[in-house]
């Protein structure tokens, strides 16, 4: 969680610094009612920041350049989507959603990208798709109908997923080699503490893949498949 906010802070600071003349830039701030945002940015030092506060939120960002993106949504029918086609998108993109019908999707291609999704409350979903080598993803979900799906295709990927409370369900798919996955699913002491935990991790085709899964209360379940050389798995389950 702290890592997500740290990266988000760096991203906001980066967005506040004016870039060179060729750099695309968009800053959008919407508060209340039928919110809707679409941003398309092509070649250049793309930067995007979208903030939506209430009601029928929806945001879509397409970038093709150096890329940075930050989407912040609070309340009501949230939905967000970010597509990035450039490699080495650091410090990466973060999506923060708090409350109501959350849904967030991040697609990153060409490697060396980072994506973070934070969802707090209500019908959370998530999803990160990364292709290329050296990608990193972090998903934090707390409360209500959590679900996460992270797919990483390439080598040297890292994924960290934390789910606290409610109907947790998780799937991580990593292809090729030298990938690492960490998943925590627990209930917590709050109004939404009931957890149906499920997790499925699939690491194939390679050497040196690692997985660490911790599940605490209630319905724990796990499917872990590792294929090829020096695999590692650590699983802790507490009913």
Give an overview of the whole structure.
By secondary structure, the protein is mostly beta strands. It has one domain (2-18, 27-238). The chain has 1 helix and 19 strands. The longest helix is centred in the first third of the chain and has 15 residues, at 2-16. The radius of gyration is 18 Å and the shape is flat. Mean pLDDT is 80; it is low at 1-19.
Topology:
Elements: H1 2-16, E1 26-30, E2 37-41, E3 48-52, E4 59-63, E5 69-74, E6 80-84, E7 93-98, E8 104-108, E9 114-120, E10 128-131, E11 136-142, E12 148-153, E13 158-164, E14 170-175, E15 180-186, E16 199-204, E17 210-216, E18 222-226, E19 232-238
Parallel strand pairs: 1-3, 2-4, 3-5, 4-6, 5-7, 6-8, 7-9, 8-10, 9-11, 10-12, 11-13, 12-14, 13-15, 14-16, 15-17, 16-18, 17-19
